[in-house]
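Quick log. Single chain, no ligands specified.
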Amino acid sequence: MEIELLVVPDCPHEAAAAELITTAVAETGVQATVTHTVITSQDQARRRGFAGSPTILVNGSDPFEDPAAPAAMACRLYPTPEGLRGVPALRDLRRALKRVAEG
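-> predicted structure:
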C-alpha cells in the first residue's frame, strides 16, 4: 500500500498527520510505504486534487475526499467525533486503510 502525505510549506498539522499515519499503519498491520510531498503552488494543488493541508492519499486516492471541495493552498479541516480538527480521527484512517487492504 502506498500512503502519501501532501502538505503546504510549514503546515501546522504536518507532524500530527505523520504521527497519525504511523499509528494507523502500526495498529492495522498493513504493509505500507509512506511518502511526504510538499505542494508549493495552486497549479500543483489543482493537478493533484489537493483539498488542503494535510491531505492523506491511500494508493493515490483521498479516503476523506469531499467532491465539492476545490483545490486549495490552505489548511484542511476534518470532521471528527470531537468536532472539526486539522487531521482525521484515528479510527477513520484505520478504517480507510483496512478497506484498501481488503480490496
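Residues 14-28 form the longest helix (15 residues).
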